[in-house]
Amino acid sequence: MKVVEQRLRVDDQAVRTDNDCTVALAAALPTSEQARADVDPTQLHDQVVTTRPEAPQPRRSAAKTWLQAFALTARVEAQPRRLFADIVEEWAQRQPNRPALLSDDQSFTYGELTARINRYARWARSLGLHAGRTVCLLMPNGPDYLACWLGISRVGATVALINTRLVGQSLAHCIDVAQADHVILTADCLDAFETARPHLHRVPQCWSLGTGGPSGDLDATLAAFEPGPLSSAERGDVTINGRALLIYTSGTTGLPKAANVSHRRILTWGGWFAGLTNASTRDCLYDCLPLHHSVGGVAAPCSMLCAGGSVAIAEKFSASRFWDDIVRFDCTVFQYIGELCRYLLKAPASERDSRHRLRLAVGNGLRGDIWETFASRFAIPQILEFYAATESNFSLFNVEGKPGAIGRIPPVLAHRFPASIVKVDADTGSPLRSDAGLCIACAPGETGEAVGRIGGAGRDGVPFEGYTDPAETEKKILRDVFTEGDAWFRTGDLMLRDEQGYLHFVDRVGDTFRWKGENVATSEVNDAIRDCPGVLDASTYGVAVSGADGRAGMAALVVDRGFDFRTFRDHLSRRLPPYAVPAFVRLCLALEATDTFKQKKQRLIREGFDPSVVDDPLFLRDPATGDYRSIDRAVYARIVEGEIRL
């Protein structure tokens, strides 16, 4: 049966929260801000109207949008043993035959998804996987990805979501950091794992999915376990406080860090996004972002599963297939990153551009210069831009749809999401301090680093769950910010607040830069480059490219006569994921450094890859072949004009 026909035929009488709930919430909420803070959210959740109107609804006000998100997250603290897998199971009881997760190769109804989750849970229990034990998941996008981590984490174990583009030492580092007892691999990830095996401190037990091999065949093993509901004894003593996932982020320096993600945050992410996107059982979200990321793998799919909707999962983004998939899966929402939107705009115009039923695009990184053009060309009724980070203790949502803004925090919610922007030194990235030793808040229009107050243990603010490495956790905490003894999370992002209170993203603090939707740590790239034959010294940084979001990687190299670009290309392809391989190379006689041997990059960044400014030889990495070729003024002009796409 076709996906659209299946979705339309399934019984649609499921309980859900929709537009009408915000009316009930608005009526129930007290008028004063203090009274609102004292309201029991659980009582409000029980008052919502749960029948979806048949007629199309007008766009909600910002206040109603926030109120709905508030209602959908109110039950988290009140029911500490209710995990996200329980939400999926509740929907399975109401609508077992409704599609939950869809793809070209595999699909699950809510009933099938719950059965698969329970099989993974029982398999994990059979291995003694509980709190403190970790399984690494190395699997491309697909419905089973979510079933796997939902099942294993349901019984207390942690699942480390590994980037499938990593190889060699970088991949080994991520597995070692997780201290994994087991690793789950699909057939197309086996070769990558073998490149990491020689570098592992301890090789976990390997389990194969879809390989058909006799050793560690997880498909056959799972089939032997019962798919029915777990007993209380099988569930164990797992609460929302337990760690469910490790999600990796490059942070501001060094190799990827593993961020702790609790069951509480999974529930909160799913609920907030469900409320802010007005998700319903009739929605289908198109997700072509990596499932090993917090947005593509948790926030996006969990928002739909929280509301009883469907998620269409693509293995990866494809501009040529994007609109065909949107129509084929009958999607009403899609998740984006800014670069994805630019790729779609650069594609040739087609009648497919607006032949869809999309009502909303939700994501981050859609800059103001293409916002309205994107919405107009593709007939997107509403765009919900947001700002968040895997390890961050606060997020921002632009529910009003102001082009170019990443969001704002309504005054009524400021006590729940205390955030600020502090002045930083442009060269060092360190916060500036007053004579009293405290940080200095930026005035509207001033650029500084965004920080979020860390709460817990009687303090206002939101907890910061940190990383597996306590030392790395401490690096992200800024103390004595506005009062002696307070603590704030450092985002590492430069922002400014306009006169209306909207925040705008400016850039990353320090050496880390964002490219192709990924954070690139220059220290990791530099280490890989310096290991290449013929390279004597290297300095890596990001440079702005006209018409592209983020910054492209560029490396200034000092080399000897043994240096060869083909060897350089092959070496980096084995050591780094594609997005981290420098797009530009500059060959220098020497690199500037301070008296303490810290590299000076500001001049290199300012000069970029313009041959009219730089006397050194410049090279561009061909996106198709990976070969480096010389940049002259004609090539530079083609890059600036967008004829050469990186």
UniProtKB/TrEMBL annotation:
<dbReference type="Pfam" id="PF13193">
    <property type="entry name" value="AMP-binding_C"/>
</dbReference>
<feature type="domain" description="AMP-dependent synthetase/ligase">
    <location>
        <begin position="89"/>
        <end position="445"/>
    </location>
</feature>
<dbReference type="InterPro" id="IPR042099">
    <property type="entry name" value="ANL_N_sf"/>
</dbReference>
<dbReference type="InterPro" id="IPR025110">
    <property type="entry name" value="AMP-bd_C"/>
</dbReference>
<comment type="similarity">
    <text>Belongs to the ATP-dependent AMP-binding enzyme family.</text>
</comment>
<keyword id="KW-0067">ATP-binding</keyword>
<feature type="domain" description="AMP-binding enzyme C-terminal">
    <location>
        <begin position="524"/>
        <end position="598"/>
    </location>
</feature>
<dbReference type="InterPro" id="IPR045851">
    <property type="entry name" value="AMP-bd_C_sf"/>
</dbReference>
<dbReference type="InterPro" id="IPR000873">
    <property type="entry name" value="AMP-dep_synth/lig_dom"/>
</dbReference>
<dbReference type="InterPro" id="IPR020845">
    <property type="entry name" value="AMP-binding_CS"/>
</dbReference>
<protein>
    <submittedName>
        <fullName>Long-chain-acyl-CoA synthetase</fullName>
    </submittedName>
</protein>
<keyword id="KW-0436">Ligase</keyword>
<dbReference type="Pfam" id="PF00501">
    <property type="entry name" value="AMP-binding"/>
</dbReference>
<keyword id="KW-0547">Nucleotide-binding</keyword>
